[in-house]
Design a protein that fits this description.
Blueprint: H1 2-20, H2 24-54, H3 60-89, H4 96-121, H5 127-148, H6 151-160, E1 162-165, E2 168-171, H7 172-201, H8 208-233, H9 242-253, H10 257-272, E3 280-283, E4 286-293, E5 297-301, E6 307-311, H11 312-317, E7 321-322, E8 330-338, H12 344-353, E9 368-374, E10 379-387, H13 395-412
Antiparallel strand pairs: 1-2, 3-4, 3-7, 4-5, 5-6, 8-10, 9-10
Helix pairs in contact: 2-3, 2-4, 3-4, 4-5, 7-8, 8-10
Length: about 425
Amino acid sequence: MDSHLDNHIAGLLSAFLADLERPDFWWQIALLGVALVLAAFVSRGVRAHVRHHDGDVEGQGAEARRRSLRRLAFPLSAALLVFVGRAVLRNWHPVNLLSIALPLLLSLAVIRIVFLVLRLSFRTARWLVGFERVFAFVVWGVVALHILGWLPLVIGVLEEVSFPVGKQQLNLWMLVQGGATVVVSLLLALWLGGLVEGRLSSTEGLDSNLRLVLTRLAKSLLVLLAVLISLPLVGIDLTTLSVFGGALGVGLGFGLQKIASNYVSGFIILLDQSIRLGNVISVGGDRGEVTRITTRYTVLRSATGIEAIVPNEQLVSSVVLNESLTDRRIRLAVPVQVAYGTDLEQAMALLVGCTRGQARILADPTPQAFVVAFADSGINLELGFWIADPEAGSLGLRSEINLAIWRAFRDAGIEIPYPRREVDVRWVGEMPKAG
């Protein structure tokens, strides 16, 4: 095998050096250069046409679309020009260089077509950049092996390395084929899942939680079907996965039960609609607006901008205070204390008057003031009012109300007491003499 490979490489190098000494070799270089230059002009024209068609549409999405179409137009137009030029030039000269350049350009076009579809389907996916590099490296490697004539040798080596799995005999080539088929099937399943998600998002009148449930179920079923269909296509019996399935079941029973519980709890939350996007909830020591619900966790964004990632199991197994489940209106209370001897009717009227002019405070139910208790240092009063936007927070509103109360009490001469302590110092025995 080594001698055959050495002879093939030596013959390829000698043929390439012989072509360099022939004058017609430079005709191929010239034709290839002209094709690449014309392809560059075509790609620019395509981008200009797309920009003119889009009008004044701007943004990252529109710019990414123009850039992707331009990157796709270059290899396709270059491959077409090289194909036509090779068909014309082969009547008079050898076209070995053009025959090598054509599959390289076509492989580049295939790479960019695949990732154009992926970018249109997964606009926010960050893993596409790294995956494109790996995918391009694999495709270019396969093309290079095919051009050099090494691909059958590599496949033969992979087929010779075999091992038994259950009752079936597998080899490395089958695993490579299975992995490639599964990857392609998964990408196709995720693309179809993206189409389903886009269709559900455009459906009016569909509950947001139900939309999330249907999207998750569609993607999960598509991924499962992709694996079940792709593996038998390359001759891998699904019964060989029984050992893996048993290990996975044992793992779920012991170490992964928390993860499984979170996923099941996520579907329960989405189906029973006890928590929805936009609700303001409190669980444990966390309070905030629900900005995202996944099958494993829920994201709460507080008024300070801090996001808490709460496992779904905690939302199912513990008490959750939902401030906007059936009614977004919530009541806030501001306590205040006045001195004994204060005109309570006047103080309570001033408290209610402090709520006027506040846009967030609702007129119905009306704000009210109450006498809560007679304390040691004064009389405890409470001002209660309702708001309809708990996601906006309450600290700023409480501060404005407290400031208005302080001003109103100051102008009316109402005292806000504070604790006073009297210390009685007594001497036991005779007073000490001076000097």
